[in-house]
Structure formats: C-alpha cells, structure tokens
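Let's study a protein:

===
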Amino acid sequence: MPLKPAIAAVLALLMPGAGHLYLKRGAKAGYFAVLILTLFAVGLVVSEGAAVSRVRAPIHLYGQYLAAIPAYLAETLLGVDPLGRTVDRLELGLVMTTIAGIMNLVVAVDAYETARKDQSGAAS
C-alpha cells in the first residue's frame, strides 16, 4: 500500500512523531516526539500549568494548538480557570509551549515531504 503524504502530514499535526511513525521512520518519529513533547511539558511545568489557556493567553493558543492533542489536553485539564495570582515564569512557559507547537508544524511539513519523496522514488 503506498504511503500518502497528506495522511502523514495530518498524523504529524495530530500528535508529534505520528506522521514519521506512519512512514516507518521510527528513529525520526521518536526524536521529534521526545523533542516537541519535552519542550511542551517543560513549558507547562515552568508556568505551573498556566501557559495553555484560552483565558490567560488567547493569542498564544493558536501556536500552541499546532501541537494538537497535547495542547488540547493541557487546556482542557489545566487551563479552564484563571489562577487569581501571578505566575513568575508564565511568559517563559508561553514561549516554550508555543515554540513546541510551531516546531510540530515544521515536523508535519517534513513528514509530508518525506512521504512525497518516497512516493516519487517508488514510482521511478
């Protein structure tokens, strides 16, 4: 069965590393998943769970949601209520989680391009 670039890209957008796993590139999938999920998790820890919130940081949420499932879970579980206090490193957590989301977009493009190259190489 030929691997489809669009499926690889969508899987990569849903969960970091999933697109490359679909392409049977386990090492690359693991590397990207660990890198992006660790950056996202450290951003959450640094911000005491306050970084991913529609209420506290509505603009950053667009970038964070590029990390898809982890961002959705973080907002659902941690970002509902305002804390009512100041978080010392909130900005650092916002930046880290947003960069993780943007990195996942780049990884999704890589998964798409890798699948496209594999597809054109197989057709030759």
